[in-house]
Task: structure prediction
Amino acid sequence: MKQVGSDTIYALLKEIKAVAMNASLTGALEDSSRALAEMYNRCVDTLEEQGDRLVGSLFPQLDPDEANMDEIGALASLLAQYLRPKEQSSTGGSGPLDDEE
Result:
């Protein structure tokens, strides 16, 4: 099985954040919260399986039946910032909302 790189997980988290933020602002896609929470959880699981022991203590798993879009977006944004490639963090933006390319 191919190992997923942190850059791929970073990109997935950015998309989760964007979809959750859009859904929160517009009320659309509210039924997608379960799928987004599960995807976020898989990102955390994958990082832990690849040996990142800190991620599990910093980023909690979400309950797919209880998580709302704001919570999903916030945690995805924070985890994306944690994974942000070093070359991006030293050029320009100062936070997870500044990383639109």
